[in-house]
Amino acid sequence: MYVNKFNKSADFPEIERLIRENGFAVLIRSVDGVVQAAHIPLELTAGEVGEKVLTGHVSRANPIWKNPDDPTETLAIFTGPHAYISSSWYDHVNVPTWNYIAVHIYGKMRLIEGEDLTRSIGALVDKYESGSVNPVSMQSMGAEYVRKEMKGLVGFEISIDRVQGAWKLSQNRDEKNRLSIIAELEKLNDHNATLVAEEMKRRL
Fold it and tell me: What tens digit of pLDDT does each residue of 77-128 get?
């Protein structure tokens, strides 16, 4: 991913926050010479020796998990809020653009199974069920049902070998124009625009 020098972030706590808040990712791998992509939730967790890894799972029918020993990198893309920036918001003539946040994680895939896979899926269910009025869990589904359903899944970990963070938030503009952009974004009454404005405020 090309990242302008104004927009790079190597702050891992900031990157980790983005991943935890926007866990629905695009996973990309080359399998037998064909580029495969999957849209799935990924979790940032601790690996075998405490290192940070991404964990997830896909349907066994999905070819993206095959040839896990292939040394080719796997790419996970996480996107945060984004918003169109009108050039009419500047105090000078300029081109319109788009503000956004994105993180690319590059690493190697390792398959997980048994108790490791059960824990991984259980943690994912618990995270996303936490806001439900009547949350379900792996336990409430029943052991036999869970065993049956898990036969159709393949779990994996992805090592974190390279990280790219892009926080493109008008850092190349002066404070007057950045404040103008924030004000205009807040007028839109749009969820993404509001979040972009909040992220821009953090950097003033």
Answer: 999 999 999 999 999 999 999 999 999 999 999 999 998 999 999 999 999 9
CA distances (Å), 109 to each of 13, 68, 69, 86, 153, in order?
23, 6, 7, 41, 15
CA atoms within 13 A on the CB side of 164: 16
Beta-carbon contacts of residue 64 (< 8 Å; ≥ 6 apart)? 27, 29, 31, 36, 37, 38, 58
**What is the CB neighbour count within 10 angstroms for residue 8?**
14
Q: Each residue of 32-72: pLDDT tens digit?
A: 999 999 999 999 998 777 789 999 999 999 999 999 889 99
Residues facing residue 162 across a β-bridge: 106
Pair 166, 101: CB distance under 8 Å: yes
**Amino acid sitting at position 2:** Y
Measured CA to CA, the distance from residue 90 to residue 183 in angstroms comes to 11
